[in-house]
Automatic annotation (TrEMBL):
UniProt subunit comment: Monomer.
Residues the record lists as binding ATP: G15, A16, G17, K18, G19, T20, R130, A175
Protein name, entry field: UMP-CMP kinase
UniProt-listed GO biological process terms: 'de novo' pyrimidine nucleobase biosynthetic process; pyrimidine nucleotide biosynthetic process
Family of this protein: Belongs to the adenylate kinase family. UMP-CMP kinase subfamily.
Keyword Nucleus tagged: yes
């Protein structure tokens, strides 16, 4: 029987460095990086009938209904030849969490949540800097306030669920990308994922 795909969730506030660190992990440890936010943005760009709905959620810093996000994640996982995944920016709320548990949890080998801990001040500075060139409709002060509210109110309780089961690996993400990656590397080597 085929082995179940290996899953690591990557969480942290907007601008904590999830995407940046995931790229480095891919390079060093050969994972497939699936950013839930990026999959949603691609779906919107593709001219999908769900595009307008997705845009409304993203611009307001709200979480898209899980059926949409899970469908995109599932398709991307099936398409990938690499079967160890960094799922970046998911699950972000109770709806995501219960949807995943219902549909996917028993089909995968879940390892842990990689949690990038970063102050709101640093995150805001990073995102406003990124916003100068990212072209993202949510990289502006107004959307950012809402994204942080959503993160605090909806995502941190999900991280707490995993923490209760000792499934959260926390990385201090205040430093530069290379400095943060040094700690990520140590963790991945320790957890025997190399
Ligand atoms: N998003 C969502 N569900 C997800 C992941 C992302 O609805 O599972 C939406 C949400 O509106 C979020 C936006 O996509 O604010 C951007 O997410 P992304 O992870 O790309 O932003 P980051 O946190 O990396 O800055
Ligand atoms: Mg990101």
């Amino acid at each position: 029987m085929e082995n179940k795909p290996l899953i690591i969730f990557v969480l942290g506030g907007p601008g904590a460095g999830k995407g940046t660190q995931c790229e480095k992990i891919v390079e060093k440890f050969g994972f497939k990086h699936l950013s839930a936010g990026e999959l949603l943005r691609e779906e919107r760009r593709s001219g999908s009938p769900k595009g307008d709905l997705i845009e409304t959620y993203i611009k307001d810093g709200n979480i898209v209904p899980v059926e949409i996000t899970l469908g995109l994640l599932d398709t991307a996982m099936q398409k990938s030849e690499i079967k160890q995944f960094l799922i970046d920016g998911f699950p972000r709320n109770e709806d995501n969490y219960t949807g995943w548990n219902k549909i996917m949890a028993n089909k995968v080998n879940f390892k842990f949540v990689l949690f990038f801990e970063c102050s709101e001040k640093t995150c805001v500075e990073r995102i406003l800097e990124r916003g100068k060139s990212s072209g993202r409709s949510d990289d502006n002060r107004e959307s950012l306030v809402k994204r942080f509210q959503t993160y605090t109110n909806s995502t941190t309780p999900i991280i707490d669920h995993y923490r209760k089961d000792n499934l959260v690996r926390t990385i201090d993400a205040e430093a530069s990308p290379d400095q943060v990656f040094e700690k990520v590397k140590e963790l991945f080597q320790k957890e025997c994922l190399s």
